[in-house]
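Quick board copy: two proteins, each given as sequence then tokens.
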Amino acid sequence: MDVLSRPAEEFENDQSVEAMWAMKAFEHAEIYFNLLSSVDAKLLHLTPYDDSIYQIFREEFPNFDVSVVNENELKSPAGKAKWRPFCERFKNVIEDYSFGTLLRADASKEYDEQNSMLVTRIQFYAIELARNREGVNDSIRKNFGCKKIETEVS
């Protein structure tokens, strides 16, 4: 059995488990960014429920700017109060909906210490699906795809 799927109460503040979570979140971010760098983001499918997630996200957050996410607003008491019901709608739909997942604050930049924040998996899906469908992530392939290939060829 995967140790990360066991109940959190079993671990208290075990640093080795925190390190495993951080590694898993970083690996997920790295894979996702590599996908964005190589494929048209509009063609990416993140879950079997992409259409529902996107539709509900835009109904509940019609003016949410996905190009640059303000972490303080997202995690403020008002932000949490608005996001909580959205996230809970997917509790029995999206596996690991509440897992910590890294999100780029500024969609035009890559993951790094200043441009990464920890969000729930369903928040990541909602924001990244909007970025992909609305063309916000298109700059990643243009700006980072060629550089990646040039680096490999050199």
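And the next:
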Amino acid sequence: MKATGIVRRIDDLGRVVIPKEIRRTMRIREGDPLEIYTDNDGEVIFKKYSPIGELSSFATQYADVLYKTGGEPVVVCDRDHVIAVSGIPKKELLERRVSPQLEELMEQRKTYSFTSKEQRKMQPVEGVERYALVCAPIIAAGDVAGSVMYLCNENQNPAGDVEVKLVQAAAAFLGKQMEE
């Protein structure tokens, strides 16, 4: 843990303002849930809460099945980071931040599919030269919780209906699991 040098006072209602610079850097938006941790040294730690993160082992198993079914690499992410990978080395993508392009797509609740060789490809993970073939948002209780996607292989053909339906079904299924 590193110190920021910023000090804030607690108001009479017990609130603390998280500075704008930290919110921007950590991608904390209005309405985002934060988990609160304490330790024996008196430290209070706020961590962004990821409802889909609690399903990470289940999401990993589902990604493995989706990879075996469709034959394309699979990525499952929450609103900020990759939480499950199958079909490519996990250390390449796991825990990496999602791209602003993917964040915007999730906010719009749209399914993306790579449909023609002339189309501009979407890079879903920051700092990784891999592109999405199909991507669908995970929606739970009316809120966007993350996304499921197939990644393009080299010399990838455009996405077909089968890939689109598989990813949409996976996103819907994970969304229902989160609601239960």
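Board note added afterward: The two ends are 34 Å apart (CA to CA).
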